[in-house]
Design goal:
The radius of gyration is 17 Å and the shape is elongated. The chain has helices at residues 12-21, 23-36, 62-73, 88-95, and strands at residues 3-10, 40-46, 53-58, 78-85. The chain is an alpha+beta fold. The protein has four helices and four strands; from the N terminus they run βααββαβα. The model has no long low-confidence stretch (mean pLDDT 96).
Length: 106
């Protein structure tokens, strides 16, 4: 199954909710949401700085990962950026593909 990285930032209202519910409760909520979509949560960490939370998860496909991202973002309490994760072997395959591309001005 494809893997994805979520970077999330809580709004002030979302941070209030996090402080009321606790970090482990939010982790469990996210895990249940991912599992309900047929995926698995591999890692969940809080951080500080530009992002507040990092999640690595699998999902059956890109459409499912997008559905999760949209559901969380529409809440208005967390802003997510979801990134597909590629293995080194994926990049090996990509390097072998021929791409017909002309740079600007060439």
């Amino acid at each position: 199954m494809p893997r994805y990285l979520i970077e999330g930032s809580y709004t002030p209202e979302g941070t209030k909710g996090l402080m009321q519910e606790g970090g482990s409760s939010r982790r469990d909520t996210v895990k249940k949401a991912i599992e309900a979509l047929g995926g698995t949560m591999e890692a969940f960490y809080y951080t500080f700085g530009h992002r507040d939370v990092i999640v690595i998860f699998t999902a059956p496909d890109d459409v499912t990962a997008a559905a999760l991202s949209m559901a969380v973002n529409q809440s208005g309490k967390v802003s997510l950026t979801t990134h597909p994760l590629l293995t080194p072997e994926d990049f090996d395959q990509a390097a072998k593909k021929t791409v017909a591309y002309r740079p600007p001005g060439a």
